[in-house]
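ERR on first pass: missing label on line 2. Operator R.T. fixed the label and resubmitted. Corrected input:
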Amino acid sequence: MKKINLPLSERDVKELRAGESVLLSGKIYTARDCAHKRMKEYIAEGKPLPFDVRGATIYYAGPCPAKMGEAIGSCGPTTSARMNSYAPMLLNSGLKAIIGKGEMSEEVYSALRYNGGVYFAAIGGAGALYASKVKTCSLVAFPELLSEAVYELSVEDFPVVVAADAFGGNIYKNNSK
Amino acid sequence: MRTISSKEIENAVYSLALKACVSLTDDCAAALRSAREKESSLSCAYALDLIAENAEIAKQRHIPVCQDTGLAVVWIEIGNEVFVSGDTIGDAVNEGVRRAYRDGYFRKSVCDPLTRANTGDNTPAFWHIEIVKGDKVDISFLPKGFGSENMSRIYMLTPAEGREGIIDCIVKTVEEAGSRPCPPVIVGVGIGGTFDGCALLAKKALFRHIGSLNPRKEVAEIEQEALKKINALGIGCQGFGGKVTALGVICEVMPTHIAGLPVAVNIQCHALRRERAVL
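pass 2 clean. output:
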């Protein structure tokens, strides 16, 4: 299986195609509903975002608390469609990759094409498996949001499927209806 | 009259919640294995393999199957010969949930609908009480994730729409949900009753085992026909395009008004977790 080191390179973006299974290693940032709302406000106010989104990978997730001695609790993906109104803004600011689950909007897919980005689908409901792929976890911003805060995760062989590539390929549109 | 202390109910809820969040139910695990055997799409088969591996890791490491440890849905059947001493049943259930979500390192997912401020302890729980004959207390716990809850719908059909209308709205709900509720899903359906009663019935259906048929023949036929139509949609595991979009359709029925035909469709993701204890 193809292994990819994050951040995603221009070459990765050119080569990845919808439907491919890949293992991701490197740094990713968690953010979901509340964190995105805050980041949108930051952009509107011209304030710097709590982490550099240029080239970055955002993971739509809100993990369980970590037990003693573990990096993180259960941490599968959440439904990406709820971030439809935020994703194009971040992709236009340099975000390279999104990890989530389920279909997103046409606006998001065209922002991926326009900016050269990739949307990866993690397997929803596999939070224990994904926890075992997280090596370190540190708080980046918004601690008051608890599980919805922004965390930086370092992951190893994190299994995902390319859901939407930079060329219009889309796994959800290939459904064998 | 049998006296049961509220502490016993609290402790039962505590144990059920701790166990439920880290384990898939046997019926769901079996339905997923059978889905894997039927599935020919490579992406769906891969996703189903990862889901099976996930259940093993959750069991071994005793961590939640899914990080969405849900709203705590608790179904209680209480015998008419039982007197509960101490706190109210609601307080006992909430205390059991509060302790379990803290001690189990489960995610606290309950917030104010407007300010979005988290309550911090996953309470309130959403409990329902049915009074039955006897001197037992039967408690079932189901942590309900919201990826699937968000895709649930209620329809106030007309009597003229009848059986076909019921099947159509079950299938339509799953089709419109697409990849979002973490398919393969389990579909709980309430047919009849009032606006609220119908929705509660759909939730109650999720406590019935996958693959069990409603004892009423015409209802069982709706379950089977709706399941067949759903699996012909081609959505597949995670929406990757495949043969198995639902693991089961479970319908519960109650009488309704002569002018109406309410149908509620409550979607449950493939990470079905529920535990039961009888006191």
